[in-house]
């Protein structure tokens, strides 16, 4: 399967964040994902998009490759990177939520700013 990719550039205003969910939902239908897989992706994406940031735009890039969905979201400020690096113990922190619903969470730097890559295997 060749890689399919969709990239959105959205204002960080709440009414526009639903567009990202809509696109991921459409992609999930096209890929015949289960409801549980779609819900996991929606929860992870929602948690990241709800992070309070400056008024810059947010980019969401979703790519399907070799049976895995990759979602790259950013840019964020350093506080998100610190939040993801922190061990919250038994508390329900952002990292724990993300690690519960997706298979991989990785913070990468692009142009000196943190971006988060989520990976989720497509199970039959």
Question: What's the structural blueprint in terms of helices and strands?
Answer:
Blueprint (H helix, E strand, L loop, with lengths): L3 E8 L2 H17 L4 H15 L7 E9 L2 E7 L3 H8 L8 H8 L2 E7 L2 E9 L3
Antiparallel strand pairs: 1-2, 2-3, 3-5, 4-5
Kindly describe this structure.
This protein has one domain: Histidine kinase-like ATPase, C-terminal domain (Heat Shock Protein 90), CATH 3.30.565. It has a five-stranded antiparallel beta sheet, covered by helices on one side. It starts with a strand and ends with a strand. It has four helices and five strands; from the N terminus they run βααββααββ. It is of the alpha+beta class and 124 residues long. The relative contact order is 0.20. Strand 4 and strand 5 form a beta hairpin.
What string, H for helix and E for strand, traces the elements in order? Answer: EHHEEHHEE
Beta fraction: 25-35%
**What is the helix tally?**
4
Helix content: 25-40%
Poorly predicted ranges: none
Mean of residue pLDDT?
A: 84
Strand segment tally: 5
**CATH level-two architecture:** 2-Layer Sandwich
How many domain regions? 1
CATH class type = Alpha Beta
- Bulk shape: globular
Strand order of the largest sheet: 1-2-3-5-4
Rg result: 14 Å
Q: In the CATH scheme, what's the topology name?
A: Heat Shock Protein 90
